[in-house]
Write a structure and sequence with these properties.
single chain; 120 residues; mainly alpha; Arc Repressor Mutant, subunit A; 2 domains; three-stranded antiparallel sheet; 3 strands; 8% strand
């Protein structure tokens, strides 16, 4: 499943929406001006793009998510694995660990996760 990967600017606006939703679009413009230094036109341009890609909606001038922050991150991670490691989680972990040593606590936490999600 391919998911749209937001740009840095889109992600910054998305974080505000996820924190404040549902948020009237006028309030979103004010928040983007305060937090990001954006003009109204910039906010609406970026908002339109992330709405077109199915992550958010602007319905009756109220902006809300169609996908939670966690769902977006999960789908983006799955897409990354598919594109870069043929969907292989173990291939990703092996590549990651080539340049990083794990602490004992991290190994124990990973082992517990694996056991909790084991298919029998």
């Amino acid at each position: 499943m391919v998911i749209y990967v937001m740009t840095q600017a889109e992600n910054e606006l998305a974080q505000i929406i996820w924190e404040e939703e549902p948020v009237p679009s006028g309030k979103l413009v004010k928040l983007a001006a305060e937090r990001l230094g954006w003009k109204k036109s910039t906010t609406y341009t970026v908002l339109r793009k992330i709405c077109e890609n199915g992550i958010f909606q602007n319905k009756d001038t109220v902006v809300s998510s169609l996908m939670s922050r966690e769902e977006y991150a999960r789908r983006k991670g799955e897409n990354y694995l598919e594109e870069n490691y043929n969907g292989s989680l173990s291939g990703f972990v092996a590549a990651f660990l080539e340049h990083k040593k794990l602490k004992r606590k991290e190994i124990e936490e990973l082992a517990k996760l694996i056991e909790d999600y084991r298919e029998d």
